[in-house]
Amino acid sequence: MQRRHFMQAATLAPTLAAAASPAWAAVSGAPARPGPERAYQLALLRQMAEPVLELMSRGELKRKFVLELSPTWDGRDPSVAYLECFGRLMAGIAPWLALPVDDSDEGRLRQRLQQQALQSYTHAVDPKSPDYLTWRGHGQALVDAAYFTNALLRAPQVLWAPLDSTTQARIVAEIKGLRRIEVPSINWLLFAAMNEAWLLSIGEEHDPMRMNGAIRKINEWYVGDGWIKDGQDFHFDYYSSYVMYPMLLEILEVIVARKAAFWNAKPVELLAQATRRAQRYCEHLERFVGPQGSYPPIGRSLTYRTAVFQPLALLAWRKQLPASLPEGQVRAAMHAAHVAVWGGPSNFSKDGFLTIGLRGRQPELGDWYSNNGSMYIAATSLLALGLPETDSYWTAPAQDWTQKKAFASERFPKDYPVSY
Predict the structure, then answer these.
(1) What are φ and ψ of residue 341, in 5° steps?
(2) Which of 66, 67, 138, 302 has the greatest number of beta carbons closer than 10 A?
(3) Distance between CA 228 and CA 47 in Å, rounded?
(4) For residues 330 and 316, what is the distance between their CA atoms, to the nearest angstrom?
(5) What SS3 state is found at 36?
(6) Residue 259 main-chain phi, psi, to 5 deg
(7) Which residues face 222 on adjacent strands?
(8) For residues 324 and 190, what is the distance between their CA atoms, to the nearest angstrom?
(9) Predicted pLDDT of residue 31
(10) Among 156, 162, 242, which residue's Cα sits nearest to residue 199?
(11) What's the CATH number for 49-406?
(12) pLDDT at res. 4
């Protein structure tokens, strides 16, 4: 196969200065048009997704995806990387895949990637396929099965419904088989809960204890002002972005929608509470974005890059941003962060795959569990692409974000803690 040439996303998009300018905003009497930020994210989605789905749809991912392991790799079976790569990528691009197909360039790309994704799901669970994923063995499978099912939950009509009955049955069997894994009392509780929530969403037998127990424990770990601990001790990192809030919200949504039992609690109230707390956490994320798009390089899994902003993208997609965060302001801040990270060199290898690093290839930043498949969680910062280009999120006039205002000596709102 002739290898495609994948250009850096930064070369496909306008500069940060142009994107922040209001010059593209709708004029009187003219329809609102999206700014360049959406085109930038779409180019990034394409650059992440095409190499992976083209190969896996043909059963060639394991053979041609060149693995990169952290220098401190803990010795686990490296084949876990393929489930990480596919599951995390799909969790990020599922909302965009769920948009309608049309005859535009974007529509044709969507249709092609939809078909490749379906073929990839088939290979993922076919024991006879070269790309049958590592469902058994290391407990890491539980983690990335949750992103695998999260994608199906985010786009059921295009990713689950079209699958043949054999593939569907195989997926259900593999997910249920992961109940064999002992779940540590950390963020992994939500991975087990996400799998059960997905089973519940499709009418399959599910384990309510894995969902309800996880939700209770996460609420016990809430430390206030939007922040959640990951286990007994508080760590100043971005795991509330990578796992806690997105999965907590979506698990609760399934429980509410399905009217599932939750002893001595009201899921509707729990969902409302989790949403308010997520909104508060998003206020912090927006304030973390510096005037030029940088943000604090703190904590574990820093190489997940812009997955830091998954909650902002999730609430934008779901039209749940708080009133304190106007859409044009969030979009501009997110774009600044994307350009700051993805405008760097060597984020992608010569073969078109993500590398280990924050801004470029920086393998020394990897943790003992890091491989280049892990890096595809960065796709979750693209969830807002699930909104069509005509949506107000993309067409509202761009606004300066908090730090940009603050360090330009402009007026900006002060920040105070919340008690919910």
Answers:
(1) -85, -55
(2) 302
(3) 33
(4) 8
(5) helix
(6) 55, 45
(7) 228
(8) 28
(9) 53
(10) 156
(11) 1.50.10
(12) 43
